[in-house]
Design a protein that fits this description.
12 helices; alpha/beta; about 450 residues; eight-stranded mixed sheet
Length: about 450
């Protein structure tokens, strides 16, 4: 099918494109940007006047809850949420039930996702069998079944020798290991950021050193092995300083932050609002400000939704007993745009255009680069010849975050009741309009 997207503002950070022009799609690929290829005759046209035409978003952490946790969410509901959020490629952690530590489980998940014919699903394989931290998985076989990297999800490896062996294995085959830095013992059982607020509320704390101690260990192991590591959801100013120094040293490291952590602090717990119970916990304002600064200077490579749907039975509990997690697929774009608006307001010389392009880059081109999805899959870009995954959105449209407005089965987010800007009007996957909000 041939499709032309007309009169939209095309923003493609990977290629430095930002301007009003037409986009041409043929046979599921980008056929032309700005100028129609020879002999092109569109069978379908989409008028994007007043809208932004961007690469489909790439989300580095989205739990789809299958297999094993279908009572929290289903593949169907979360894929629909991805479409409403403009997310065309998503990376899912291995902490399903059973854990994604065998090729057959990975192949089953990918097969189920392909049948839905919506977002591209890229699983992370378990780094150790059952995420128990005792023996490493058959990474080569898991890669052959479709895994793009290896992770422990939220379960730290207590035995440093096991982590060393895993990084040596990964280096041998040039795999990326995805780790969320957290010490296995310090802060165990904590539910909030260690600080005055947690003390006043009587909540058990997770100190920043739980992150920084783990980072010191990871960087030492990287120096020894040369393995490539992606750090998931850095949450503190001290942690970002260590990442900044590691990058300056030349270590092959990248990192992301959760979209919620760009805006919220531990003060947003309020009166024990369990919707604000997330992992890692919201930290102090200085940490939130450091995350925002890290997004500007490139210390933080990408923003992820950290999409973790939780059902009412596990969320509507006292703060310390509630399950951590929040829905995020449908908020990723709006939260990134909110950061861009705040940045443009604080730095008048930057201009709205530069801030918007940078925000889009952090949730498309940059996310694709650190995950390796810019190679082969050509995700996060609108280059001629690349797969036609496109997000078309209205940056000025305002919407209120309500459970009824979310397609995800998980309705819990600390942003309930907030009014945000940026609403996806259409999502195109491999040249097919997979979602359209309103016929134009």
């Amino acid at each position: 099918m041939k499709l032309v997207i007309k009169n939209g503002r095309v923003i493609d950070p990977a290629n430095g494109v930002d301007g009003v022009q037409d986009l041409y799609i043929e046979d599921g690929k980008i056929a032309g940007v700005g100028q129609a290829p020879a002999g092109f005759s569109a069978g379908q046209s989409f008028d994007a006047s007043g809208l932004v035409v961007a690469p489909g978003l790439v989300d580095l952490s989205a739990r789809l809850r299958e297999p094993g946790y279908e009572y929290k969410a289903t593949l169907e509901s979360e894929m629909q949420a991805a479409m409403q959020g403009g997310v065309t490629s998503l990376v899912c952690p291995p902490d399903t039930d059973p854990v994604l530590d065998e090729p057959g489980l990975v192949e089953m998940l990918k097969h189920r996702a392909r049948r839905l014919n919506q977002a591209h699903v890229h699983p992370l394989g378990a780094l150790t069998m059952g995420l128990k931290g005792q023996s490493i998985t058959e990474m080569a076989e898991l890669t052959g079944s479709g895994c793009i990297g290896f992770s422990q999800a939220e379960v730290p490896v207590e035995d440093t020798t096991v982590l060393l062996r895993a990084l040596q294995y990964a280096k041998t085959f040039d795999y990326t290991v995805w780790l969320r830095p957290q010490d296995a013992h310090i802060g165990r059982g904590g539910v909030a950021h260690s600080g005055p607020l947690a003390s006043r509320l009587g909540l058990s704390g997770v100190p920043v050193m739980a992150e920084t101690i783990a980072l010191h260990t990871i960087f030492e192991l990287m120096r020894s092995t040369g393995a490539r590591v992606h750090l998931c959801r850095i949450s503190s100013a001290a942690g970002l300083e260590l990442v900044r120094a590691a990058k300056a040293e030349g270590l092959p490291v990248s990192c992301d932050v959760g979209a919620h952590h760009i805006h919220l602090t531990d003060a947003d717990i309020g009166f024990f609002d369990s919707n604000a119970r997330v992992t890692p916990p919201f930290r102090a304002q200085r940490d939130r400000d450091a995350i925002r600064a890290g997004l500007l200077d490139g210390t933080v490579d990408a923003i992820c939704s950290d999409h973790t749907p939780v059902d009412d039975d596990e969320k509507l509990l006292p703060f310390g007993e509630a399950s951590p997690g929040a829905t995020g697929l449908e908020l990723l774009l709006s939260l990134a745009l909110k950061w861009a608006d705040d940045y443009a307001a604080a730095q008048p010389g930057v201009g709205e255009g530069g801030a918007l392009a940078l925000a889009i880059s952090r949730i498309s081109a940059d996310a694709a680069r650190v995950s390796g999805l810019d190679r082969g899959q050509n995700a996060g870009q609108l280059s001629v010849g690349s797969v036609a995954d496109v997000c078309i959105f209205d940056p000025a449209a305002r919407w209120t975050v309500q459970g009824s407005a979310l397609a995800s089965q998980g309705k819990h987010t600390p942003f309930l009741g907030y009014e945000l800007s940026g609403q996806v009007q259409a999502t195109i996957v491999a040249g097919r309009i997979a979602y359209q909000r309103n016929a134009r």
